[in-house]
Design goal:
By secondary structure, this protein is mostly helical. The protein has one domain. It is built from 9 helices and no strands. Keywords: Membrane, Transmembrane, Transmembrane helix.
Length: about 200
């Protein structure tokens, strides 16, 4: 936990440098395949510092995250047999049990699995690498990643653009709960649509 806290503080310090925007891109890229700290923490800080740039920051985070997801897919697709022990031993959120459950989810709900992980606090890196390792349809993976990551980061950007710094504490405190509620509503809406129409 101390290592994670140090990484969290290290991520935040980039907002106070001229390299905050490139750091956001690189963080979003890295978090999609191996880095434990989500880019939201730097995105929120940058948006508060410059609310007019909130949507540009959200775009940068989205593009970085989707490209990082492609890298994660590539790791799973090409290198999984070589690097699996590293991920199971050193990357938070990666366990053999979780990975086995992910395989079951992919076999039943490929788009929804990627979308849910991309939008919610579920470790996205487990899904990106799993998608490659289990060879799910690549266009489906890209579409689900692009939609979910963009929704997540643009929601954060819009909230700060609309409500300013006062929303930061609220987002940080309730982000996980908010994304879970949104997913429940989204899945409920899909089920209603499926059974009504």
């Amino acid at each position: 936990m101390q290592l994670v806290r140090r990484l969290y503080d290290w991520v935040l310090h980039w907002a106070e440098t001229p390299y905050g925007v490139p750091a956001l891109f690189l963080l979003a890229f890295a978090e999609s395949s191996f880095f434990p700290i989500p880019p939201d923490v730097l995105l929120i800080t940058l948006c508060i510092a410059l609310p007019a740039g909130a949507f540009r920051f959200a775009l940068i985070a989205s593009v970085g995250s989707v490209l990082g997801g492609v890298a994660g897919y590539g790791i799973g697709y090409s290198l999984w047999g070589v690097v699996d022990s590293y991920f199971f031993n050193y990357v938070p959120g990666f366990t053999e049990e979780v990975f086995a459950r992910v395989q079951g989810l992919f076999s039943a709900y490929d788009f929804l699995t990627v979308f849910t992980a991309g939008f919610t606090p579920i470790p996205y890196k487990v899904i990106t690498i799993g998608a490659g390792a289990f060879k799910i349809n690549f266009p489906v993976f890209i579409l689900a990643s692009a939609v979910s990551r963009s929704l997540r980061f643009y929601l954060v950007g819009w909230l700060i653009y609309r409500y300013g710094p006062a929303i930061r504490e609220f987002i940080e405190k309730y982000f996980n709960l908010l994304t879970i509620v949104f997913m429940v509503l989204l899945v409920g809406g899909v089920l209603v649509f499926k059974f009504v129409f």
